Amino acid sequence: MLTFATLRERWASFAGGFTVLVLGMTMVSMSVLALASAGARVPERLAGAPVFVSVPMPERGDGDFAPDRPWSPDMVASLRERLAAIPGVAHAIPDRTFYAQPVIGGRPVAGEQGYAWSAAMLAPYRLTAGTAPREGEVALDRSLGLAPGARVPVLTVHGPVTYTVSGTVNGPGVYLSDAEAARVSAGVRAIGLVTEPGADIPAVAAAARAAAGPAGVVRTGDGRGVLESRDHERTRWIGLQVLTGMAALSAFVSVLVVASAFAVGVAQRRREFGLLRAIGATPRQVRRMVYGEALVVGVVATAGGVAAGASLGPVLGDLLVRVGFEPPGFAVEVSPPPLAGSFAVGVVVTLAGVWSASRRAARIPPLEALREAEVDDRPMPLVRWIAGAACCALGLAAAADAAASDGSDAFVMSGLVAAMGVIAGLALLSPAVVPPVARLLSWPLARGRGATGMLVRESALTAVRRTAATATPVLVTVGCTVLITGMVQTTAAGFAQARATTIRADAVIVPDGTPGLTDAAASAGGAESSLFSGLFEPDGGVLSVIGATPELLERAGDVQVVSGSLDALRGDDRVLVADWLAADRGLRPGAKLPVSFEDGTSASPTVAGVIRDADADVLLSRSLLRAHDPVALAREAYVAGAPTPPGAGARVVDVTTYAVEADAQEDRLVWIATALLVLVSTVYAGAAIVNTMVMSAAGRVRDLTVLRLSGATGRQVAWAVAAEAVLVVLLGTGLGLVVALPALLGMRRAFTTAMHTDVPLVVPWPLITGVIAVCLTLAACSAALAARPATRHAARR
């Protein structure tokens, strides 16, 4: 016969696992839905052409967003002529793009891009007022509020140009006449086929495939999604990493927290399992009973979590777009397969989490359960000892490797492995580590607070598994938060410090509301700037290239000349190559480097020397790169002497400000992703803490009743329980800091060696303090509230 106390204990164990699973599966289902919706999409501006022919796209590695080799101008003309002759094709339109940003009210309009007027048919966009643009005219999006006949400055790569608005269209973009667009656009990589009404699309695609031959690939339907911009592809890739991390972290932590919840539940029900064994239940039957209970809880909780995730998925999609992890137009679509997969993950997580608890329940002997005291002094399993020791040994070995690093790239991974290994090891060994550390921390409390302090100390030391179950999530959360956030902030500060010490300039011109600097803005006040682009090898490989002057490279101070001289860049027929490229291709001074440029033309400049640490594979003269890449914008311009106002789309900052802001966008995305992971881990830690407090309170009714009957007031009991919870959270916090801070200091030393400058250690203490405060508040409040029913029951007695 089940008593009220037994039912309450069982509900507490179920409620803990239920809450954690609902939360975890909500996160998993939201992430999985977003991942399923995050595939490449057909750009809106190309959705009106059912068939495209694009350049061949070689396989690229993960995270490689290099552009594809464009067609040569002669190939574009030939392909266009052949494709336009296909029956059913009304127009064959090369997709020409270029930089164009209108300036309205003295500020550049964000998000605008330039296109040839014929490309409007690819959407298709239509005129809402006025006429098509001619030479010196422009058609703009009607949402900008400019009427035909108005004059508007437009930023181009060369500088601001004032155009007359010829008309407005019902879509975004800055449209110039086809002839003018051809002069300022880059190479063509796709040709869209606008078909006649009623045309047979499969037949048109087959004819286009025959007409293009090996020079092009036909794209139809959803296959046109590969034509999205590399910027959008890169944004989707970043979002993929964030969503994958959130889903994996949610599933992983759910397993740990569910395992902890059921472990505590099994420990509190040892007498019940012992009685079952005493009346003849076999270990297999006990395991089946625990699995059955967990499966019921898991199915119900997972269904609730999946339903919540389905309703919150669109909200997550909007958030991802706003913070920059998904391109504009992204939306989470709710579909059955991702939800079914999330449900299956929830069931697997439940069964994985309860595996250890079921084995422990099945091993309970009848007599031990009947005579068991409240003291939890059972030894840890041998497997846990071995796993914990192995993780700690791995972490210490990685720490030694990081400490001995000479500044190579491997030291970051070594530092992470060191900290994560020790954190995992301490989490596994927590039942053995917690008692001596708790005894040390609680010693002043016991001496200074009399009976209450002694009670708090002895309770924490006696219930080892309860203390460890509470301290472990805090240890993992605080340790990982300090490590990851500190590493991100220290890395950003290190790069800024290195940049500030190498630049030899009086000021820097940087973009202001634009994706880069125009030539006019970059040369204001005698400033000098470099251009970044790509060179395409005959086999399809892409080399990064910087077009610069010798004076600019010396002023930037980040290029080491191995052989030759920077003066080689004064000629348009010579290049300097990176040391790895010279070794890999066997390029000696005087050798030819056959490449194609962004405009599709080919050349074979002469190798004049070898360089190192140039942030590019090839250096050539700025004038040569500009001649072959009419769309490249400068990232910054260095000023010697007093700067002059650079005009719209640019601003002047000092070197220190530039060093901090240079990677601001990248740092923002990395920090947001880091904060999301910290938020997820903190939520799970809080759930684990609350779960442990509620479950342990259900099993401490007898202890709390004795306290009340011995004269303690309800408030005193609540304070004692809350103080014990705070002590345990502080214990986990201390262990997390002890593990993470030395690893951060080691990585800081390696950063200093690698960057040849003193890198400051930056730890976001406000965020860390907030995480600790949340854990402390949840632990104290949940412990005190969970103990109230027991104290009231004792008072009635």
From TrEMBL:
Keywords of the record: Cell membrane, Membrane, Transmembrane, Transmembrane helix
Statement: the UniProt record of this protein carries the keyword Transmembrane helix: yes
TM stretches of this protein: 237-267, 294-317, 337-357, 382-404, 410-434, 467-488, 669-696, 717-745, 765-787
Subcellular location: Cell membrane
Domain of life: Bacteria
Cellular component terms per the entry's GO annotation: plasma membrane
Molecular function terms from GO: transmembrane transporter activity
Chain ranges of the ABC3 transporter permease C-terminal domain: 246-366, 676-793
InterPro entries in alphabetical order: ABC3_permease_C (IPR003838), Macrolide_Exporter_MacB (IPR050250)
Membrane topology label: Multi-pass membrane protein
Family note: Belongs to the ABC-4 integral membrane protein family.
Protein name stated in the entry: ABC transporter permease
Organism in which the protein naturally occurs: Sphaerisporangium melleum
